[in-house]
Prior knowledge:
heterotrimer, A: mainly alpha, 5 helices, B: mainly alpha, 3 helical TM bundles of succinate and fumarate reductases, 6 helices
Amino acid sequence: xxxxxxxxxxLFTGLFLVALLGVHMLGMHMDTLLPRFGMGYKDPLVFQxxxxxxxxxxxxxxxxxxxxxxxYHGFYGLRAVLMEVWASSRTLSSINMLVWSLGLFLFFLGxxxxxxxxxx
Amino acid sequence: MAIPLKARPVxxxxxxxxxxxxxxxxxxxxxxxxxxxxxxxVLFYLVLHIFATSTRIFGEPAxxxxxxxxxxxxxxxxxxxxxAGFVFHALNGVRLIFQELGYLLGKPTPPVFPYSYGxxxxxxxxxxxxxxxxxxxxxxxxxxxxx
Amino acid sequence: xxxxxxxKVQRYASNGLPPRIExxxxxxxxxxxxxxxxxxxxxxxxxxxxxxxSCRMGICGSCAMFVxxxxxxxxxxxxxxxxxxxxxxxxxxxxxxxxDLVVDLSSLFDRHRTVLPYLIRSEEPxxxxxxxxxxxxxxxxxxxxxxxxxxxxxxGCPTCASDPTFLGPQALAQAxxxxxxxxxxxxxxRKESLDRPHGxxxxxxxxxxxxxxxxxxxxxxxxxxxxxxxxASYFGLFRKRKATLGPPVSWEAAPPEGAPRxxxxxxxxxxxxxxGD
Lengths: 120, 147, 277
Protein backbone atom coordinates (compact mmCIF):
# COMPACT_ATOMS: atom_id res chain seq x y z
CA UNK A 1 0.00 0.00 0.00
CA UNK A 2 1.15 3.48 -0.72
CA UNK A 3 2.26 5.13 2.50
CA UNK A 4 0.40 8.34 1.71
CA UNK A 5 -2.94 6.64 1.05
CA UNK A 6 -2.76 5.05 4.52
CA UNK A 7 -2.16 8.51 5.96
CA UNK A 8 -4.99 10.05 3.96
CA UNK A 9 -7.34 7.32 5.16
CA UNK A 10 -6.22 8.18 8.70
CA LEU A 11 -7.50 11.74 8.21
CA PHE A 12 -10.65 10.43 6.59
CA THR A 13 -11.46 7.99 9.43
CA GLY A 14 -10.55 10.71 11.93
CA LEU A 15 -13.17 13.03 10.51
CA PHE A 16 -15.80 10.29 10.68
CA LEU A 17 -14.83 9.36 14.21
CA VAL A 18 -15.25 12.91 15.44
CA ALA A 19 -18.90 12.64 14.47
CA LEU A 20 -19.56 8.96 15.29
CA LEU A 21 -17.58 8.81 18.51
CA GLY A 22 -19.05 12.16 19.53
CA VAL A 23 -22.58 10.79 19.22
CA HIS A 24 -21.53 7.54 20.90
CA MET A 25 -19.86 9.32 23.81
CA LEU A 26 -22.79 11.69 24.35
CA GLY A 27 -25.32 8.90 24.15
CA MET A 28 -23.62 6.13 26.09
CA HIS A 29 -21.15 7.74 28.46
CA MET A 30 -22.71 11.11 29.28
CA ASP A 31 -26.00 9.70 30.51
CA THR A 32 -26.97 12.22 33.18
CA LEU A 33 -26.95 15.68 31.60
CA LEU A 34 -28.53 14.95 28.23
CA PRO A 35 -31.73 13.23 29.47
CA ARG A 36 -32.43 16.31 31.58
CA PHE A 37 -32.81 18.24 28.36
CA GLY A 38 -34.94 15.49 26.88
CA MET A 39 -32.18 14.03 24.73
CA GLY A 40 -30.16 10.85 24.67
CA TYR A 41 -30.62 7.62 26.58
CA LYS A 42 -31.78 7.42 30.18
CA ASP A 43 -30.12 4.16 31.15
CA PRO A 44 -28.15 2.95 28.15
CA LEU A 45 -26.37 0.17 30.00
CA VAL A 46 -29.39 -1.77 31.36
CA PHE A 47 -29.42 -5.19 29.71
CA GLN A 48 -32.90 -4.72 28.20
CA UNK A 49 -31.62 -1.62 26.38
CA UNK A 50 -28.51 -3.48 25.26
CA UNK A 51 -30.74 -6.28 23.99
CA UNK A 52 -32.95 -3.83 22.09
CA UNK A 53 -29.99 -2.17 20.37
CA UNK A 54 -28.28 -5.47 19.68
CA UNK A 55 -31.31 -6.69 17.75
CA UNK A 56 -31.76 -3.57 15.64
CA UNK A 57 -30.09 -4.20 12.26
CA UNK A 58 -29.16 -0.54 11.88
CA UNK A 59 -27.37 -0.52 15.22
CA UNK A 60 -25.44 -3.69 14.42
CA UNK A 61 -24.33 -2.30 11.05
CA UNK A 62 -23.31 0.91 12.81
CA UNK A 63 -21.31 -1.09 15.38
CA UNK A 64 -19.32 -2.96 12.74
CA UNK A 65 -18.52 0.09 10.58
CA UNK A 66 -17.71 2.12 13.66
CA UNK A 67 -15.45 -0.64 15.01
CA UNK A 68 -13.56 -0.90 11.72
CA UNK A 69 -12.98 2.86 11.44
CA UNK A 70 -11.96 3.21 15.09
CA UNK A 71 -9.55 0.28 14.95
CA TYR A 72 -7.96 1.53 11.73
CA HIS A 73 -7.50 5.01 13.14
CA GLY A 74 -6.21 3.77 16.48
CA PHE A 75 -3.78 1.21 15.13
CA TYR A 76 -2.47 3.44 12.35
CA GLY A 77 -1.68 5.98 15.07
CA LEU A 78 -0.02 3.30 17.19
CA ARG A 79 2.04 2.24 14.17
CA ALA A 80 3.27 5.80 13.64
CA VAL A 81 4.27 6.05 17.30
CA LEU A 82 5.99 2.65 17.30
CA MET A 83 7.93 3.28 14.11
CA GLU A 84 9.23 6.53 15.55
CA VAL A 85 10.30 4.84 18.77
CA TRP A 86 11.95 1.80 17.16
CA ALA A 87 13.12 3.35 13.94
CA SER A 88 14.82 1.00 11.52
CA SER A 89 13.93 -0.82 8.34
CA ARG A 90 14.16 -4.16 10.15
CA THR A 91 11.62 -3.33 12.85
CA LEU A 92 9.08 -1.85 10.44
CA SER A 93 7.83 -5.20 9.16
CA SER A 94 7.44 -6.53 12.71
CA ILE A 95 5.54 -3.40 13.73
CA ASN A 96 3.29 -3.75 10.69
CA MET A 97 2.64 -7.39 11.51
CA LEU A 98 1.89 -6.68 15.18
CA VAL A 99 -0.48 -3.83 14.36
CA TRP A 100 -2.31 -5.71 11.62
CA SER A 101 -2.75 -8.91 13.63
CA LEU A 102 -3.95 -7.10 16.76
CA GLY A 103 -6.31 -4.90 14.77
CA LEU A 104 -7.78 -7.73 12.71
CA PHE A 105 -8.19 -9.94 15.79
CA LEU A 106 -10.12 -7.20 17.62
CA PHE A 107 -12.19 -6.44 14.52
CA PHE A 108 -13.22 -10.07 14.10
CA LEU A 109 -13.91 -10.43 17.82
CA GLY A 110 -16.15 -7.36 17.84
CA UNK A 111 -17.90 -8.30 14.61
CA UNK A 112 -18.49 -11.88 15.77
CA UNK A 113 -20.00 -10.68 19.04
CA UNK A 114 -22.21 -8.08 17.35
CA UNK A 115 -23.47 -10.44 14.67
CA UNK A 116 -23.74 -13.39 17.08
CA UNK A 117 -25.77 -11.33 19.53
CA UNK A 118 -28.01 -10.18 16.69
CA UNK A 119 -28.70 -13.75 15.62
CA UNK A 120 -29.34 -15.19 19.11
CA MET B 1 48.66 8.45 15.50
CA ALA B 2 45.83 5.96 15.76
CA ILE B 3 42.60 7.33 17.15
CA PRO B 4 41.78 5.62 20.46
CA LEU B 5 38.85 3.27 20.21
CA LYS B 6 36.73 5.30 22.58
CA ALA B 7 37.20 8.58 20.71
CA ARG B 8 33.79 8.65 19.11
CA PRO B 9 31.12 11.30 18.79
CA VAL B 10 28.73 11.03 21.72
CA UNK B 11 25.10 10.43 20.84
CA UNK B 12 22.96 13.46 21.64
CA UNK B 13 19.49 12.38 20.46
CA UNK B 14 16.80 13.48 22.87
CA UNK B 15 14.78 10.29 22.33
CA UNK B 16 11.26 9.95 23.67
CA UNK B 17 12.12 12.47 26.40
CA UNK B 18 12.34 14.97 23.54
CA UNK B 19 8.61 14.56 22.87
CA UNK B 20 7.93 16.05 26.27
CA UNK B 21 10.71 18.59 26.65
CA UNK B 22 13.27 19.83 24.18
CA UNK B 23 13.40 23.55 24.87
CA UNK B 24 11.25 26.64 25.33
CA UNK B 25 9.00 25.99 22.34
CA UNK B 26 5.45 27.17 21.78
CA UNK B 27 2.03 25.62 22.22
CA UNK B 28 1.81 23.36 19.16
CA UNK B 29 4.80 21.25 20.12
CA UNK B 30 3.09 20.32 23.37
CA UNK B 31 -0.20 19.67 21.58
CA UNK B 32 1.78 17.15 19.47
CA UNK B 33 2.74 15.22 22.61
CA UNK B 34 -0.70 15.53 24.16
CA UNK B 35 -2.33 14.35 20.92
CA UNK B 36 -0.13 11.27 21.07
CA UNK B 37 -0.81 10.57 24.74
CA UNK B 38 -4.58 10.98 24.45
CA UNK B 39 -4.62 8.90 21.26
CA UNK B 40 -2.79 6.02 22.95
CA UNK B 41 -5.06 6.35 26.00
CA VAL B 42 -8.26 6.20 23.97
CA LEU B 43 -6.89 3.25 21.97
CA PHE B 44 -6.10 1.37 25.19
CA TYR B 45 -9.63 2.08 26.39
CA LEU B 46 -11.06 0.92 23.06
CA VAL B 47 -9.38 -2.47 23.45
CA LEU B 48 -10.75 -2.85 26.99
CA HIS B 49 -14.14 -1.63 25.78
CA ILE B 50 -14.29 -4.28 23.05
CA PHE B 51 -13.57 -7.04 25.58
CA ALA B 52 -15.98 -5.62 28.19
CA THR B 53 -18.92 -5.22 25.81
CA SER B 54 -18.22 -8.65 24.31
CA THR B 55 -19.49 -10.19 27.57
CA ARG B 56 -23.05 -9.47 26.43
CA ILE B 57 -22.87 -12.58 24.25
CA PHE B 58 -22.88 -14.66 27.46
CA GLY B 59 -26.24 -13.27 28.54
CA GLU B 60 -27.59 -11.00 31.23
CA PRO B 61 -25.75 -12.31 34.33
CA ALA B 62 -22.34 -11.93 32.67
CA UNK B 63 -23.25 -8.42 31.45
CA UNK B 64 -24.44 -7.38 34.91
CA UNK B 65 -21.31 -8.77 36.53
CA UNK B 66 -19.09 -6.81 34.12
CA UNK B 67 -21.03 -3.57 34.55
CA UNK B 68 -21.00 -4.01 38.32
CA UNK B 69 -17.24 -4.54 38.24
CA UNK B 70 -16.78 -1.43 36.04
CA UNK B 71 -18.89 0.67 38.41
CA UNK B 72 -15.86 0.97 40.70
CA UNK B 73 -14.84 4.66 41.16
CA UNK B 74 -11.41 3.98 39.67
CA UNK B 75 -13.01 2.85 36.38
CA UNK B 76 -15.42 5.77 36.55
CA UNK B 77 -12.48 8.15 36.81
CA UNK B 78 -10.73 6.30 34.00
CA UNK B 79 -13.84 6.74 31.85
CA UNK B 80 -13.79 10.45 32.62
CA UNK B 81 -10.12 10.71 31.58
CA UNK B 82 -10.94 8.90 28.34
CA UNK B 83 -13.77 11.32 27.65
CA ALA B 84 -11.61 14.37 28.35
CA GLY B 85 -8.82 12.85 26.22
CA PHE B 86 -11.24 12.13 23.40
CA VAL B 87 -12.59 15.70 23.42
CA PHE B 88 -9.08 17.11 23.13
CA HIS B 89 -7.99 14.53 20.54
CA ALA B 90 -11.07 15.18 18.39
CA LEU B 91 -10.79 18.98 18.46
CA ASN B 92 -7.06 18.99 17.91
CA GLY B 93 -7.53 16.32 15.25
CA VAL B 94 -9.88 18.56 13.29
CA ARG B 95 -7.28 21.34 13.46
CA LEU B 96 -4.61 18.90 12.26
CA ILE B 97 -6.76 17.65 9.36
CA PHE B 98 -6.95 21.19 8.03
CA GLN B 99 -3.41 22.26 8.80
CA GLU B 100 -1.67 19.05 7.71
CA LEU B 101 -3.26 19.54 4.30
CA GLY B 102 -1.82 23.04 4.21
CA TYR B 103 -5.00 24.96 5.01
CA LEU B 104 -5.29 27.43 7.93
CA LEU B 105 -1.58 28.10 7.62
CA GLY B 106 -1.56 31.05 5.26
CA LYS B 107 0.57 31.61 2.20
CA PRO B 108 4.36 31.69 2.04
CA THR B 109 5.26 35.29 2.82
CA PRO B 110 8.42 37.04 1.67
CA PRO B 111 11.21 36.35 4.17
CA VAL B 112 11.48 39.85 5.60
CA PHE B 113 12.54 40.39 9.22
CA PRO B 114 10.78 40.05 11.65
CA TYR B 115 9.86 36.67 10.22
CA SER B 116 6.38 35.23 10.52
CA TYR B 117 5.33 31.64 10.17
CA GLY B 118 2.00 30.01 9.41
CA UNK B 119 1.44 28.25 12.71
CA UNK B 120 1.95 31.43 14.71
CA UNK B 121 -0.33 33.44 12.43
CA UNK B 122 -3.03 30.85 13.11
CA UNK B 123 -2.22 30.27 16.77
CA UNK B 124 -5.72 31.46 17.82
CA UNK B 125 -7.00 28.23 16.25
CA UNK B 126 -4.77 26.20 18.58
CA UNK B 127 -5.87 28.33 21.54
CA UNK B 128 -9.50 27.74 20.60
CA UNK B 129 -8.83 23.99 20.59
CA UNK B 130 -7.39 24.17 24.10
CA UNK B 131 -10.24 26.32 25.43
CA UNK B 132 -12.96 24.13 23.91
CA UNK B 133 -11.23 20.98 25.20
CA UNK B 134 -11.14 22.42 28.74
CA UNK B 135 -14.84 23.34 28.49
CA UNK B 136 -15.67 19.86 27.21
CA UNK B 137 -13.71 18.21 29.99
CA UNK B 138 -15.50 20.41 32.55
CA UNK B 139 -18.94 19.52 31.21
CA UNK B 140 -18.03 15.84 31.31
CA UNK B 141 -16.84 16.27 34.91
CA UNK B 142 -20.20 17.78 35.85
CA UNK B 143 -22.02 14.99 34.07
CA UNK B 144 -20.13 12.18 35.73
CA UNK B 145 -19.44 13.39 39.23
CA UNK B 146 -21.59 16.39 40.14
CA UNK B 147 -25.05 15.91 38.62
CA UNK C 1 31.25 48.91 36.94
CA UNK C 2 31.96 46.51 34.13
CA UNK C 3 29.13 44.15 33.23
CA UNK C 4 30.11 40.51 33.29
CA UNK C 5 28.33 37.50 31.95
CA UNK C 6 28.97 34.00 33.20
CA UNK C 7 29.16 31.49 30.38
CA LYS C 8 28.75 27.81 31.16
CA VAL C 9 29.80 25.60 28.27
CA GLN C 10 29.29 21.89 27.93
CA ARG C 11 32.70 20.33 27.19
CA TYR C 12 33.25 16.95 25.62
CA ALA C 13 36.53 15.65 24.25
CA SER C 14 35.60 12.43 22.41
CA ASN C 15 37.84 10.56 24.86
CA GLY C 16 35.21 8.37 26.45
CA LEU C 17 34.75 10.66 29.47
CA PRO C 18 31.21 11.99 29.92
CA PRO C 19 30.46 15.62 28.98
CA ARG C 20 31.06 18.19 31.74
CA ILE C 21 30.11 21.84 32.29
CA GLU C 22 32.85 24.47 32.51
CA UNK C 23 32.27 28.05 33.62
CA UNK C 24 33.92 31.22 32.28
CA UNK C 25 33.53 34.89 33.20
CA UNK C 26 33.33 37.18 30.18
CA UNK C 27 33.18 41.00 30.21
CA UNK C 28 30.01 41.95 28.35
CA UNK C 29 30.27 44.73 25.80
CA UNK C 30 27.34 46.44 24.15
CA UNK C 31 26.08 44.51 21.14
CA UNK C 32 28.10 41.43 22.07
CA UNK C 33 26.83 38.23 20.49
CA UNK C 34 27.05 34.74 21.94
CA UNK C 35 29.69 33.99 19.32
CA UNK C 36 31.72 37.02 20.47
CA UNK C 37 31.65 35.63 24.00
CA UNK C 38 32.86 32.22 22.80
CA UNK C 39 35.64 33.87 20.79
CA UNK C 40 36.66 35.87 23.85
CA UNK C 41 36.90 32.63 25.82
CA UNK C 42 38.94 30.91 23.11
CA UNK C 43 41.33 33.85 22.71
CA UNK C 44 41.79 34.80 26.37
CA UNK C 45 40.65 32.07 28.76
CA UNK C 46 40.76 28.60 27.24
CA UNK C 47 42.22 27.89 23.82
CA UNK C 48 41.02 24.29 23.89
CA UNK C 49 37.34 25.25 23.52
CA UNK C 50 35.94 23.94 20.25
CA UNK C 51 33.03 25.49 18.38
CA UNK C 52 32.24 26.02 14.72
CA UNK C 53 31.71 29.42 13.15
CA SER C 54 32.58 31.09 9.92
CA CYS C 55 30.73 34.08 8.52
CA ARG C 56 29.58 35.82 11.76
CA MET C 57 26.49 37.12 9.93
CA GLY C 58 23.89 34.34 9.84
CA ILE C 59 24.67 33.09 6.35
CA CYS C 60 26.91 30.03 6.69
CA GLY C 61 24.85 28.06 9.21
CA SER C 62 27.83 26.82 11.23
CA CYS C 63 27.26 28.21 14.71
CA ALA C 64 23.86 26.81 15.68
CA MET C 65 23.90 25.88 19.38
CA PHE C 66 21.56 25.30 22.29
CA VAL C 67 21.58 28.30 24.63
CA UNK C 68 19.49 28.42 27.81
CA UNK C 69 17.00 25.89 26.52
CA UNK C 70 16.53 27.15 22.97
CA UNK C 71 18.50 26.73 19.75
CA UNK C 72 20.07 29.91 18.35
CA UNK C 73 22.61 30.93 15.76
CA UNK C 74 25.38 32.17 18.08
CA UNK C 75 26.40 34.94 15.66
CA UNK C 76 22.83 36.08 15.16
CA UNK C 77 21.90 36.44 18.82
CA UNK C 78 23.10 39.14 21.20
CA UNK C 79 23.61 38.23 24.83
CA UNK C 80 21.11 40.84 26.00
CA UNK C 81 18.41 39.10 23.89
CA UNK C 82 18.70 36.10 26.20
CA UNK C 83 17.98 38.43 29.12
CA UNK C 84 20.13 36.52 31.62
CA UNK C 85 23.57 37.12 33.07
CA UNK C 86 24.24 33.42 32.87
CA UNK C 87 24.46 31.56 29.57
CA UNK C 88 24.32 27.77 29.50
CA UNK C 89 25.60 26.71 26.09
CA UNK C 90 25.22 23.15 24.90
CA UNK C 91 25.70 21.51 21.52
CA UNK C 92 22.67 21.20 19.24
CA UNK C 93 20.46 18.24 20.26
CA UNK C 94 19.61 15.36 17.89
CA UNK C 95 23.11 15.36 16.36
CA UNK C 96 26.16 13.42 17.58
CA UNK C 97 28.69 15.61 19.39
CA UNK C 98 32.22 15.52 18.00
CA UNK C 99 33.86 17.90 20.47
CA ASP C 100 32.49 20.53 22.86
CA LEU C 101 29.95 22.49 20.78
CA VAL C 102 30.83 20.91 17.43
CA VAL C 103 28.18 18.48 16.20
CA ASP C 104 28.35 16.12 13.25
CA LEU C 105 25.87 17.44 10.68
CA SER C 106 26.56 14.75 8.08
CA SER C 107 23.21 13.05 8.78
CA LEU C 108 21.52 16.37 7.91
CA PHE C 109 23.34 16.64 4.59
CA ASP C 110 22.74 12.97 3.77
CA ARG C 111 18.99 13.38 4.24
CA HIS C 112 19.11 16.67 2.33
CA ARG C 113 20.64 14.88 -0.68
CA THR C 114 18.00 12.12 -0.77
CA VAL C 115 15.21 14.58 -1.73
CA LEU C 116 17.08 15.69 -4.91
CA PRO C 117 17.40 19.35 -3.87
CA TYR C 118 17.95 20.88 -7.29
CA LEU C 119 15.89 21.86 -10.32
CA ILE C 120 15.10 18.88 -12.53
CA ARG C 121 14.17 19.77 -16.09
CA SER C 122 13.31 17.55 -18.99
CA GLU C 123 14.96 19.77 -21.61
CA GLU C 124 18.56 20.79 -21.97
CA PRO C 125 19.04 24.34 -20.71
CA UNK C 126 19.15 26.95 -23.44
CA UNK C 127 21.80 29.53 -22.69
CA UNK C 128 20.10 32.22 -24.74
CA UNK C 129 16.49 31.80 -23.53
CA UNK C 130 15.82 32.82 -19.92
CA UNK C 131 12.98 31.13 -18.02
CA UNK C 132 10.22 33.59 -17.24
CA UNK C 133 8.73 33.49 -13.75
CA UNK C 134 5.95 35.68 -12.37
CA UNK C 135 6.44 37.36 -8.96
CA UNK C 136 3.77 35.14 -7.34
CA UNK C 137 5.53 32.07 -8.70
CA UNK C 138 8.76 33.28 -7.16
CA UNK C 139 7.08 33.91 -3.82
CA UNK C 140 5.71 30.35 -3.76
CA UNK C 141 9.20 29.02 -3.00
CA UNK C 142 11.34 32.06 -2.12
CA UNK C 143 10.81 31.72 1.62
CA UNK C 144 11.92 28.09 1.65
CA UNK C 145 15.04 28.85 -0.36
CA UNK C 146 16.54 30.84 2.55
CA UNK C 147 17.58 27.61 4.34
CA UNK C 148 21.22 27.73 5.49
CA UNK C 149 21.36 24.07 6.67
CA UNK C 150 22.22 24.97 10.26
CA UNK C 151 20.25 22.04 11.74
CA UNK C 152 18.19 24.09 14.21
CA UNK C 153 14.87 22.78 12.86
CA UNK C 154 16.03 19.18 13.28
CA UNK C 155 17.14 19.86 16.86
CA GLY C 156 13.64 21.08 17.74
CA CYS C 157 11.63 18.40 15.94
CA PRO C 158 10.12 15.81 18.32
CA THR C 159 9.94 13.16 15.59
CA CYS C 160 13.64 13.65 14.83
CA ALA C 161 14.34 13.27 18.55
CA SER C 162 13.35 9.61 18.57
CA ASP C 163 13.53 8.69 14.88
CA PRO C 164 16.96 9.30 13.30
CA THR C 165 15.77 7.84 9.99
CA PHE C 166 13.01 10.47 9.61
CA LEU C 167 13.85 12.82 6.74
CA GLY C 168 13.41 15.81 9.02
CA PRO C 169 12.10 19.35 8.50
CA GLN C 170 15.19 20.62 6.69
CA ALA C 171 15.14 18.02 3.89
CA LEU C 172 11.35 18.05 3.57
CA ALA C 173 11.19 21.83 3.33
CA GLN C 174 13.83 21.74 0.61
CA ALA C 175 11.86 19.04 -1.20
CA UNK C 176 8.98 21.52 -1.31
CA UNK C 177 11.24 24.45 -2.21
CA UNK C 178 12.12 22.68 -5.48
CA UNK C 179 8.74 21.02 -6.04
CA UNK C 180 6.91 24.34 -5.65
CA UNK C 181 9.21 25.99 -8.18
CA UNK C 182 7.43 26.00 -11.53
CA UNK C 183 10.71 25.64 -13.40
CA UNK C 184 11.07 22.20 -11.80
CA UNK C 185 9.70 19.02 -13.40
CA UNK C 186 11.06 16.46 -10.93
CA UNK C 187 8.18 16.00 -8.49
CA UNK C 188 7.53 12.45 -9.67
CA UNK C 189 11.19 11.54 -9.08
CA ARG C 190 11.29 13.23 -5.69
CA LYS C 191 8.15 11.39 -4.60
CA GLU C 192 10.06 8.13 -4.18
CA SER C 193 12.09 9.46 -1.28
CA LEU C 194 9.18 11.34 0.31
CA ASP C 195 6.24 8.96 0.07
CA ARG C 196 7.67 6.10 2.14
CA PRO C 197 7.90 5.08 5.83
CA HIS C 198 9.94 7.66 7.79
CA GLY C 199 9.31 10.07 4.92
CA UNK C 200 6.99 13.05 4.88
CA UNK C 201 4.11 11.30 6.68
CA UNK C 202 5.95 11.15 9.99
CA UNK C 203 5.68 14.92 10.32
CA UNK C 204 2.82 15.54 12.74
CA UNK C 205 3.01 19.31 12.77
CA UNK C 206 4.68 20.13 16.09
CA UNK C 207 5.83 23.39 14.52
CA UNK C 208 9.08 23.69 16.50
CA UNK C 209 11.01 23.85 13.21
CA UNK C 210 9.25 26.99 12.00
CA UNK C 211 9.37 28.55 15.43
CA UNK C 212 13.11 28.18 15.92
CA UNK C 213 14.29 28.75 12.33
CA UNK C 214 16.63 31.78 12.40
CA UNK C 215 16.03 32.53 8.71
CA UNK C 216 12.22 32.52 8.69
CA UNK C 217 12.03 29.52 6.37
CA UNK C 218 8.84 28.08 7.92
CA UNK C 219 9.53 24.39 7.15
CA UNK C 220 6.20 23.37 8.74
CA UNK C 221 4.24 25.28 6.11
CA UNK C 222 6.32 23.82 3.29
CA UNK C 223 5.92 20.27 4.57
CA UNK C 224 2.14 20.56 4.91
CA UNK C 225 1.92 21.94 1.37
CA UNK C 226 4.09 19.04 0.25
CA UNK C 227 1.65 16.59 1.86
CA UNK C 228 -1.26 18.24 0.06
CA UNK C 229 0.61 18.09 -3.24
CA UNK C 230 1.41 14.39 -2.76
CA UNK C 231 -2.20 13.52 -1.94
CA ALA C 232 -3.40 15.63 -4.87
CA SER C 233 -0.95 13.87 -7.17
CA TYR C 234 -2.60 10.50 -6.40
CA PHE C 235 -5.75 11.85 -7.99
CA GLY C 236 -3.90 13.64 -10.77
CA LEU C 237 -4.73 17.02 -9.27
CA PHE C 238 -1.25 18.39 -8.59
CA ARG C 239 -0.62 21.03 -11.22
CA LYS C 240 1.46 24.14 -11.53
CA ARG C 241 1.77 26.55 -14.38
CA LYS C 242 4.65 25.45 -16.58
CA ALA C 243 7.37 28.04 -16.73
CA THR C 244 7.73 29.50 -20.18
CA LEU C 245 10.90 30.47 -21.98
CA GLY C 246 11.35 34.17 -22.65
CA PRO C 247 12.53 35.73 -25.90
CA PRO C 248 16.14 35.05 -26.83
CA VAL C 249 18.61 37.33 -25.14
CA SER C 250 21.08 38.85 -27.49
CA TRP C 251 24.29 40.26 -26.07
CA GLU C 252 25.00 42.27 -29.16
CA ALA C 253 21.64 43.73 -30.23
CA ALA C 254 20.75 47.14 -28.93
CA PRO C 255 18.03 47.11 -26.26
CA PRO C 256 14.66 48.78 -26.88
CA GLU C 257 14.39 52.45 -26.11
CA GLY C 258 14.63 53.13 -22.38
CA ALA C 259 15.27 49.53 -21.30
CA PRO C 260 18.29 48.88 -19.08
CA ARG C 261 21.15 47.11 -20.79
CA UNK C 262 22.01 43.56 -19.71
CA UNK C 263 25.34 43.30 -17.90
CA UNK C 264 28.28 42.98 -20.19
CA UNK C 265 29.56 39.49 -20.71
CA UNK C 266 32.81 39.01 -18.85
CA UNK C 267 33.57 35.48 -20.07
CA UNK C 268 33.04 34.33 -23.63
CA UNK C 269 32.27 30.71 -24.55
CA UNK C 270 35.44 30.69 -26.63
CA UNK C 271 37.47 31.29 -23.48
CA UNK C 272 39.76 28.25 -23.63
CA UNK C 273 40.34 28.12 -19.88
CA UNK C 274 36.64 27.45 -19.24
CA UNK C 275 35.65 25.28 -22.20
CA GLY C 276 38.11 22.56 -21.17
CA ASP C 277 35.45 20.04 -20.17
